[in-house]
Amino acid sequence: MTRRTPRNVLFDKLRTPRKLSGFLKTASVCVLIAGLLSPLTQAVAAPSITASNDYCGGQCSDILPPGENGNATLAQILLNQMFGTQPSHAEDQLGPYAGLATGYSGLTDAKINTFFNDASFGVPSDQVASSEKPAGRGDVTIVRDKKSGVPHITGTTRYGTEFGAGYAAAEDRLWLMDVFRHVGRGQLTSFAGGAAANQGLEQQFYRNAPYTEADLQAQIDRAVASNGARGQQALADVNAYLDGINAYIDASDSGRYFPGEYVLTGHKDAITNAGTIAHFKVTDLVALASVIGSLFGSGGGGEVGNALSLIAAQSKYGVEEGTRVWESFRERNDPEAALTVHNGESFPYVTRPATAQGEALPDAGSVTQEPLVYDRTGSAASASAAKTSATAAKTALTSARRGMSNALVVSGKYTASGHPIAVFGPQTGYFAPQLLMLQEIQGPGISARGASFAGLSMYVELGRGQDYSWSATTSGQDIIDTYAVELCQDDYHYLYHGTCTAMDKVEQKNSWTPTTADGTPAGSYTMRAWRTKYGPVEYRATVGGKKVAYTTLRSSYLHEADSIIGFQMLNDPDYVKGPGGFQSAAQHINYTFNWFYADSQHTAYYNSGDNPVRAAGVDAEFPVWAQPAYEWRNWDPAANTADYTPASAHPNSVDQDYYISWNNKQAKDYTTAPWGNGSVHRGNLLDDRVKKLVAAGGVTRTKLVQAMADAALADLRAEDVLPKLLKVINSSPVTDSTAAAAVNKLQAWVTAGARRTETSAGSKTYANADAIRILDAWWPLLVKAEFEPGLGSDLYNAITGNLPVDEAPSAGHGPTGSHAGSSFQYGWWSYVDKDIRAVLGEPVQGGLARTYCGGGSLGSCRDALISTLKQAAGLTAAQVYPGDDQCSAGDQWCADSIAQRALGGIKHGRISWQNRPTYQQVVEYTAHR
Fold it and tell me: What is the pLDDT of residue 267?
């Protein structure tokens, strides 16, 4: 299997151009380092910072690798590149985070903060590392602690508080913020270089959100105007935040301690200080929000892909049987799926209509993807650049968005203390610097600590208040629909309510030249999007012989700024006083997330997102005609607003015995947008463990962390599917010596717990390494042997287009590449599980329409499994793990390992694989206001 590796997006290699060869000789570097380090020295004050508003009793903890400090001067980058030296607080959370993988078995409550930070409010006086008044202001203080360097921002005015938040964000993430405001505008390559990963990143997001500057401004204007006093306060907060960012830009520029990446990418001159760092403006934050929302909070899409696999199924089996087969693989509402709200309550959403209305399925063979990139020159015209574009498009257009994140929340009724316990956090990937940043903000109307996306940290987005904590996982319910707009006049006009209407053309022209940071040869291209009232064009096709364009309409399109109100509420101690206030705040977030809450007395859950009310009879799985009868109810195309389902129709709950989420199905009858929510899902890894803890009672923070950490090392295939595969193989004596040896190794691994874990901390060698290698090799072989003979190649390939066969730790993750941590979110494990149980004659709810393994014959199925197992056992480690720019061929541990994908000049070492939130909280409140 070809695997993409996490290229250093902006700094694949720190190259030294010839014109700077003398400048970067060792002696000159030493002089440069000495000169550039001097302005970084700060006077350290040590005021006593106390927190009388903290009700967690020292039992709130958090972690966010690699470290809080995501800025580095040129001198610090050069030291890191040459000697591996790390700037202060750049990776001091990476070791504790990594250590939990081998340390969780011996965990106690007293040891939790060996692997996490103390997330109490304030900083004890003896732990104050620095204190500053940003820009000399008297109404805000930023204190940083010695252990992790987290900024604790305390303001006496609202303006000063938000000014401090902006200043601290720029201190810790200025370069990253600049990168992502350019990503959000589709301008990354012009800003940071033409590396393939940069091209892929900007193309991925521009395809879904091709906004003009006017679009960005209109979104903030609309969010402010429609939210009364809170909207006005949000705008004031944003402006104060921007003032803080820009004050730091000015100070660091004049003081020459700005991030060194600006020099390495040619924006600043290290000798003369010529060049500028552009100030931030309000539309930059909307561009940033569009990236984050697209990555983690926009469920649905993929209707054209669904149509293609349905057509393939109907072609093979006929319309009626083909539809039945397709539906069985789709698993819209699988009765065996793990649920977050598991008390049996039903929340119907986008259920399958009895008779679909307005469907616009493409004619067979007519679908072509809409090009995004035009006028390629130089390095942009290479074959590798074209391949990058194809990968970016596939990632942007699929419903299988890797939102990730997990949550484990237990009611106080089942804990040792009688207080709820939560272990939760978002799985946002691994980057250097991290996309998120930690902070504490205390000021008028704001009291919170936690994580926020860099550049959007005017509020804490995931974290804790005075007596409550909240977190989120990506929910992925369907808020994206595909419309077939009938073309008229030419390929760039379409019928809108009977009138031939011109499409809007939006373009972004990018060009780049080699820099010290990125030596990609000069190149350029134009990204061109065609927009209709029904959203951007994504595909072209014919439907019944008529030429159409397929467009994608997302309910959060043109509404990237709306969620700011919900986050403002979550930070307001006068608004959130219990589950009701929490759920009300979450209702103001228009992105698709599962939100979880815990205080000293209650737990709660709410599923957010603007779920559009669809026309009666519309099946949201497939494209529909762009006609008034099939539009969202009361849809206004100018503002992209519509009727949305009421809050009561969203899955929600208070004080359920426990909640788990790992991007699994939310509740009964709440249709999942991505494929693969069936009988085996990684959510089961949490559900099985937490259910046992709750049944036993006396749950502690230690026990819940251990449940999370154990699931983080589990191989889902080995834990939940492999025992059934072995049951088929062992239905008769295994006489072949190669197969028998493989079976013995696999069985021993299952007995040992089916984990992918080191033999000891730092060994970089897996226990049960042979069994892991065999299963990694066997899974794709056995799935193909099990299903392709029955489905036929066309249908098998079409369904793999909807749902990949596997997502092992060493697999690629689109533009993110390999070494990304998150695993087992999408794969065919549920199909294999249901099919094998059917072969064994075991009961199956919501089974596949047919039995595939061996045509339903136990003996034939066994033969297919043994044959592919022997083939897998014969593959060497070098064949299974072919190596990449991170790892040599055959290095199994390295192939799985997590790399902090560099978005700047500082590099970090790899850590052992864990399938775990990037930012994570462990909380148990002891009191309430």
Answer: 98
Spatial separation of the C-alpha atoms in residues 285 and 220, rounded to whole Å = 9
How far the first Cα of the chain sits from its last, in Å, is: 55
CA-atom Rg of the chain in angstroms: 27
How many Cα atoms occupy the beta-carbon half-sphere of 215 within 13 Å?
Answer: 17
Alpha-helical regions (H) of 848-887: 858-873, 877-880
* Two tokens, residue 381: 């015209």
d(CA 358, CA 642): 19
Give me the residue label for tokens 């397929």: 550
- Residue pLDDT, tens place only, 866-918: 999 999 999 999 999 999 989 999 999 999 999 999 999 999 999 999 999 99
Q: Mind listing the pLDDT tens digit for each residue in 834-854?
A: 999 999 999 999 999 999 999
Q: Are 871 and 879 in contact (CB under 8 A)?
A: no
| pLDDT of 151 higher than 50 | yes
Residues 6+ positions from 229 with CB-CB distance below 8 Å: none
Query: CA 389, CA 373: separation in Å to the nearest integer?
Result: 8
* Cα(613)–Cα(299) distance, integer angstroms: 15
Tally the C-alpha atoms within 13 A of residue 261's C-alpha that lie toward its C-beta.
Answer: 28
Q: Which of 535, 592, 36 is nearest to 273 (CA)?
A: 36
> What pTM did the predictor assign?
0.95
Tokens of 810: 């060493």
Amino acid of residue 336: E
**How many other CB atoms are there within 10 angstroms of residue 345's CB atom?**
15
Residue 96 · residue 111 · CB < 8 Å: no
pLDDT for residue 914: 96
Q: What share of the chain is helix, strand, coil (3-state, %, to 5)?
A: 40, 20, 45
Nearest to 845 by CA among 701, 704, 679, 711: 679
Which pair of tokens denotes residue 33? 């380092």
Residue 790 parent element (H or E) = helix 769-791
Helix (H, G, I), strand (E, B) or coil at 145: strand
pLDDT score, position 401 = 54
User: What does the alpha-carbon distance between residue 53 and residue 72 come to, in Å, rounded to a whole number?
Assistant: 34
* Rounded distance between C-alpha atoms, residue 588 and residue 288, angstroms: 19
618, 581, 621: which is closest to 602 by C-alpha? 581
Q: Residue 400 pLDDT more than 80?
A: no
Distance CA 716, CA 712 (A): 10
Which percentage of the chain shows pLDDT scores above 70? 93
Which DSSP state fits 415?
B
CB atoms within 10 A of CB 353: 13
The rounded distance, in Å, linking the Cα atoms of 168 and 144 is: 10
CB within 8 Å of 162: residues ≥ 6 apart: 155, 236, 237, 238, 240, 241, 244, 443, 458
The letter for the amino acid at 105 is S
What rounded mean pLDDT belongs to the chain? 93
> Could you give phi then psi for residue 554, rounded to 5 degrees?
-110, 135
d(CA 578, CA 565): 18
Per residue in 700-714, pLDDT tens?
A: 999 999 999 999 999
Q: Which two tokens stand for residue 841?
A: 């004659």
Q: Which residues contact 349 (CB under 8 A, 6 or more apart)?
A: 477, 478, 611, 645, 649, 669, 670, 671
Our CA angle for 779, 338, 777, nearest 5°, is 10
pLDDT of residue 292: 86
Q: pLDDT category, 208, cuts 50, 70, 90? A: confident
Burial label, 197 (beta-carbon count in 10 A; 0-12, 13-18, 19+): buried
User: CA 749, 754, 756, 759: dihedral to nearest 10 degrees?
Assistant: -50
